[in-house]
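job 3f2a | input accepted
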Amino acid sequence: MDNKKNSLTVKDCINIGVFAAFYIVIFFVTSFIGYIPIMLVVLSVLCGIVCGIPLMVFFSKAHVFGMVTIFGIIMGLFMLVMGRPWYSILTAVVAGVAADLWMKTGEYKSISKAVIGSGIFSLWMLGMIMPLYFGRDAYLLSVAEGYGEEFANTLEKITPGWSFVLLVVLTFVGGILGGLLGKAVLKKHFKKAGMA
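job 3f2a | predicted structure (196 res):
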């Protein structure tokens, strides 16, 4: 196999940057619905669906291990810059590496693996909501200061401890739905990219 195909090129780095920027814009616009308490809780699910199209396009450009990981790191760093907790970078790196490893099993040429990879990658978004479950009191206090006590109380009521497991599952499913949406919309694009 050509060594060029096994290492990152300048073009790969450009693709990572361009698609990360595009993904962030779509994610950021979608995240405005988080101003409604119930929507804040399911934000990772909805963003997984909506961001599925740009993510799948990026996956069609990924051909070597490291591209998806770097994409994940960029998401985590963006969240840190936006003032999100350190959980964000941790989940972004883990989800990026996991999705990269998964995509590698199909040599970055399998659409079905890319769809599952979309579900795996979407789990990075859980880092934003993790403080609600791990460090709950401090998080709810900060929410009350920023959004008001009524918002914080509603958030507390609709998020019992067990709901985190449900949220993990729903975020994964949302990412898969986004991947399927991307696959349906970009069928011709994947054929051009040599993915089957």
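job 3f2a | The chain has a mean pLDDT of 89.
job 3f2a | closed
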